[in-house]
Amino acid sequence: MFARRRILNAYPLKGGACRGDESYSIPSGPFYASVFEQFGSEAQCEAALETARWPEGFRCPICGKAGHSEFRVGARKMFQCRACRTQTSLIAGTLFQSTHLGLTTWFLAIYLIS
Ligand SMILES: [Zn+2]
Question: Which of 22, 32, 37, 84 to pair with 1, CA 20 to 30 A apart?
């Protein structure tokens, strides 16, 4: 909460404050513009997560090979190893694995508390 308050206080906000506390204001301003510029879409969040997870490109978690194909199951991005046919989702094994929330929501939350 301290970090969020500090972040919010560091940037001018627009919108009406509630209970006389600017931390309840409607988010806007340069900080939020920057967050939404970088992580405003699921595709941007997926790309950031993919790079963080596999900085040098996808590697099969079972056999370690790089060859793969990509597909989607609903909104979930999946990878299938060409060598052993193992299927892995982008979020499998991450803290996002069991969530029903979009990555954009998580990324904003992480940004706010870090
Ligand atoms: Zn494999």
Answer: 37
> Which DSSP letter does residue 87 get?
E
The pLDDT of residue 31 is 66
Which residues, given as ranges, of the chain have pLDDT below 70? 1-32
CA of 33 to the centre of ligand 1 (A): 40
CA within 13 Å, CB half, 72:
5
d(CA 22, CA 8): 8
Distance 49 CA to ligand 1 centre (A): 20
Neighbour count for residue 60 (Cβ, 10 Å): 20
Expressed in angstroms and rounded, the spacing between residue 90 Cα and the centre of ligand 1 is 15
Round to whole Å and give the CA distance between 6 and 28: 15
| DSSP for 16-55, written as a single string | --BTTBGGGSPP-SHHHHHHHHHHSSHHHHHHHHHHHH-T
Q: What is the pTM of this model?
A: 0.64
Q: So what's the pLDDT on residue 27?
A: 58
